[in-house]
Specification:
The protein is α/β, with parallel strands linked by helices. It contains 27 helices and 18 strands.
Length: 759
Amino acid sequence: MGKRKSSGRSRESGSNLTKKQMKHLREFGEEHPFHDKVSEKAVPAQIVELADSSEQSDSESDAESGSEQVTAYQHLCSTLNVAEDEDCDNESEFEGEEENQGDEEEEKDDSENAQEERDAFSDACTENKISVAGKEFAKDELVHDDEIENATDLEADFIDVKNEAKFCLESNFIGDGSEDENDKVSYVNSSEDPFKQHMDTELEDDDVKTITRFKSITQSKWTTLGQLVWSSPLPKYTLIKELSGEDLKNLHLHKPLETTWPKVNGQLLSQEGQMNQQEFFTPLQQGLFSIMNGYKDLYYPERTAIRNGEEVRHAYCLHVINHVLKANSQVLSNNAQYRDRKAEVDDDLRDQGLTRPKVLIVVPFRESALRVVHTLIGLLDMKNKLEVSNKRRFKDEFGSNPGDKPPNLKRPEDYEAIFAGNIDDHFRIGVAILRRSMRLYAPFYSSDIIIASPLGLRTIIKAEGEKLRDFDFLSSLEILIIDQADVYLMQNWEHILHLLKHLNQQPHEPHGVDFSRVRMWSLNNWSKNYRQTLIFSALQDPQINAIYSKHCFNYRGQVAVRNMPQTGSICHVVVQLPHVFQRLDISSFTGLPDARFEFFIEKILPQYREAVMSHTLIYVPVYFDYVRLRNYFNREEINFSHICEYSKKSTINRARYHFLKGEKSFLLFTERFHFYKRYTIKGIRHLIFYELPTYPHFYSDICNMLKAENRGDEATWTCTALYSKYDAQKLIPVVGAERAAQMIQSKKSVHLFVTGENL
């Protein structure tokens, strides 16, 4: 991205260079001082510019960068009068000859140039006297060059001179003759349309203050989603009714979607056995779309990659495309009115935000982004007339090669579903939609939809004080979708928090916006009160709950699905094993990490220090707790091994072997390692859950590892788990809602369960 164009002068200068000189030129952007012809008269240094790479994509910027400045190191060399020194070290000459011999082996025709290089080395030998000062200047200049290169790379995310006019909303009109009569879709100005109701509502100052101070909580039960908890900051936006069969006929979908949606969703409908009923949605999609189409925030913590992941993805993609098409059609329709009225300004024609991006979809892996884009293309491709730009490049960068996966790799079903395809977690891509065209890799300020990973966004937003940071493109988001939120707990949750802090902020630059077309609530910096946030996760977790309660300010309110599991994952443990749950009694959540550590080293660990209690695996969900325990074990000189997500393969194999053979009594084992690897640890006789697992099925997975070795000592196996009243959301899916309530409220702090018996 952002390659510099070459000039004729640079090609002429580069044609006389040897292969080695060209290699250095490509890497550092300048000739090596070794090849400088130093004379008694100072000669200004000449910079040779690189030629364009043949791999430059059509989406990259075509703007030419300015000529590079003379580096500080070259300037220093050119201003010194260097005399010829014939007393150079023989060792240095020998090294110079060795390097040139390598060039002669690579290309025999460069023998004459090699001789000139050796002569040049003799002439420049005295430069060693200023090498220290030169390195300092060169270091500063190298940092400057890196900043220029980074700036050029980032420009491709925000600038697209070549295709700007084609995908610019302000320069296009509905019915301008550039589309077929069958493809014309005008903006439907319906007062019953949820999109128009949501976007045209004007809040008062008192309403905005009420949103941040007060929320009324109500509960209801739907047949499709189960138990729902509604939070309504404003009294007039409370409950909405569940869509019925009659309501499905009037969803206010944009016209093309009525044709394409049944085709895209047909496979899922056939799996549910509803194809003959001519239904639009599966029962789950019907419940989700009822809330999405009402523009309420939604937290759905039952999205699993195996069972309903595709249903959820199709539902929110339909909502996103429906929203974008309506928004763009409104702009195109108003363009014609502005063209006719010319200088006249009407507040009724305010139809935009401060920047163009309307939707941000956060997904963890490239494979997830690939499936989202394929779904969007399917929803837009009516009669196979959709023009998709950069489709081949997208397939190359986001697709996967089936041969990359080891053929004999056997992992659980949920692992195969989560880590299918390309699992790179550093990416971002803009999508622009206009009429019958979709442009992938559109610059962010020309995009309607941005699909990115938390890490991909973090590298653009960066931290305060860093250079080349930009987050203005997040200023006017109208829909935020955080899909597979549980996976981010296994990556870096800080990236999600950092992203949420920079949403819907006033931009630092205008970015060419026409302020006469910007909605008043956007100018008032109330965009966050109109943003709809959709969170999909496989589990309920306090950190996910926190972003739902602290970063969702939609004036229409929030909806959370709260179904309590009656049976826990402990029921899936197949080995006969006593499970001892020990409760930590603590009054403050902030003191929980210290209290758990003290309780472990004082009450739990002494019981396992005896020789008969060897082969003990300690499961640690939080990496900081793992480091704390590891350091303590080292100080106390306890015989142990440790495995974490950062361990090398040799370290892992060695730790597993020593633990199996009993050479190490303890094995520290992190949750993120289990999430990414799913290795079976053999030789376990005793289990300690330092904290309950984030994923409830991990509890049964670890317990069932004890059956890997049938040594006849099953009667001595033990399992101990620590919990507190603040771990209720982790305890419920492990033991069930009813048992969890008893364990938290009971006066007893120790509870025993036995699995593997027919009671």
